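Researcher: I need the complex structure. Ligand is zinc ion. Inputs:
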Amino acid sequence: MAKKRFGYGSFYCWNCGDAIEKGTSNCPNCHALYEGDKRYGNIPLMQAGGIGWSNQTNHPRFKEYASKNKKYSIVFLIIISILIPFIILIGNDVSFDAEMIVVIPIVLLIVWLFGIIFMHFQYGRKKPEWDGIVENKFSENKKRYDKSNNRTVYYTEYTVVYQRQDGKQIKHTSQNSNEYDTFQIGEHVHYHGGKYCKGLEKYDKSHDRVLNCIACGYGNDARNNYCERCGCPILKGQPVTK
Ligand SMILES: [Zn+2]
Ligand SMILES: [Zn+2]
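Model: Output:
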């Protein structure tokens, strides 16, 4: 694999998942073109996602991506740990009194505690797997009052309701329409709760032009085998045979 890069971007080959240096047009590993309209040759877009559950959820790339994210989270925690004392002091009109000496470590402790708990659940722990169908989905226009700016904020909330096979109902609500756009009512879904690969997969991906990466959420062309942004495998089914 080529040199690892810091940050996100179109740095991974859509075909083999190898990291790509900027300024070349062919993947050094598999020689696939990775730019321009012709890169997919005559692979048709429709049905490229296939039908059935993916067999890639244990791919080592998910672990690599998770440990990379863990590192970023720790760097982030360190940066805010440096910034927090300044923010508290400025908010307190720069008086470093006895109270601040107590408050600053407590705030830092809470921030680190939340950070470590988040990382533990996100990147190192299995979650229960489940199967189900999309029972319902709806969007609602909502508004809330923003006190600090003294104005009303309008937004849309997207909800997808899943009926699990074990009888439980699950509701996912978000202001982001990704999940709402991806899943259609009646569709079969599986929740992957692997240590490093967590998220929903739908059984039939053959009608999708765009497949969201389960690791980073980036919307990839359905012909991609690997996510262009993070290099993780795109969960796809078996090719559709006519
Ligand atoms: Zn390649
Ligand atoms: Zn990705």
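Model: Summary of the prediction. The beta strands are 130-146, 151-164, 169-174, 188-193, 198-202, 210-212, 219-221.
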